[in-house]
């Protein structure tokens, strides 16, 4: 495994980070989830990313149980707050980035994860209905209480990141990461978010580097998805992945196979290595529904892709790549969630 510093902090994280969205507490049984976490640890992964909203708290619980007994100092555990969490009917304040919700949510996350602190506490989206000053003050208080060591954001625009960074600096806390979607197919952070973060000292830790499995090449155009894959997961996965499941995308992804083979890689490994070519990316957040996938994916660590192959990838994918920076801001819900 290779390690990178997260932003301008002294925290090192494994450049392949294990994430458990849609899998733990939902698509996969708990014993398989535990086997995936152990495969990650065996492969040298030390960094784990989750969120309170994943499976409405169950993902944090399953991850916490799978990591129980590990040396805490040798792990970096990341979680997030924003989306509605809690028993139904949820209360008005069971969502967002108000002081009340942040203070209550961090305690719920720590309880479920079975740890006294998280290494990184992230705002899962921007909350347009809470003053940013209130949010950043609450995050700073979470850090001062020792419940989180660093703070980060997810799917925030360059402008939002700049404003938050200014407040965090005044409050004396370290805002060191941005967690956006980024893959060969989804490049909307390149024009604005990445240059802004480079200037301010934040790294990207990028989600769905494999476009949820599509960039592994296992989905074939015109054919039904393989049994047990995310595209067949009616608990949520099938809905989230469908944006990429067009014949045009799937046909072009098949054409990446010879590029991967030139490097002695699988297509999945090529996709993960691709996001790691960008110096501002500290980690690829990779999911898995089986331990064998983890073992395959970690081999993307440390791979260099020559410039001519990067150009070939761009040629192959052509106009199926999404690059519009306007889409960053659009991932923030325009109305309150509850
Ligand atoms: P990926 O793009 O890595 O997709 C992972 C999925 O692809 C696996 O669950 C598996 O699904 C399939 N897969 C993995 N390896 C292989 C392989 N070698 N060959 C074939 N298929 C493979 O990322 P995710 O979409 O899972 O997201 C990763 C993490 O990013 C999340 O766990 C979470 O931590 C974070 N995230 C953050 C978000 C945010 O808003 N901040 C949003 C979404 C994710 P299957 O076997 O079922 O097909």
Structure description:
The model has no long low-confidence stretch (mean pLDDT 96). The chain is globular. Helix content is 37%, strand content 14%. It has 338 residues and is of the alpha/beta class. The protein has one domain: Alpha-Beta Barrel (TIM Barrel). Strands 3-4-5-6-7-8-9-10 form an eight-stranded parallel beta barrel, surrounded by five helices. A two-stranded antiparallel sheet has the order 1-2. The site of NADPH dihydro-nicotinamide-adenine-dinucleotide phosphate has 29 residues, from strand 10 and helix 11.
Characterize the largest beta sheet: strand count, sense, and whether it forms a barrel: 8 strands, parallel, barrel
The amount of helix comes to 25-40%
Shape: globular
Q: What's the CATH H-level homologous superfamily?
A: NADP-dependent oxidoreductase domain
Mean pLDDT: 96
Distance, first to last CA = 42 Å
Estimated share of beta-strand residues: 5-15%
Stretches where pLDDT is under 50 for at least 5 consecutive residues are: none
Radius of gyration based on Cα positions: 19 Å
Order of helices and strands: EEEHEHEHEHEHEHEHHHHEHHH
Provide the CATH topology.
TIM Barrel
Beta strands, count: 10
In DSSP terms (H or I, runs of 4 or more residues), the helix count works out at 13
Unique ligands: NADPH dihydro-nicotinamide-adenine-dinucleotide phosphate
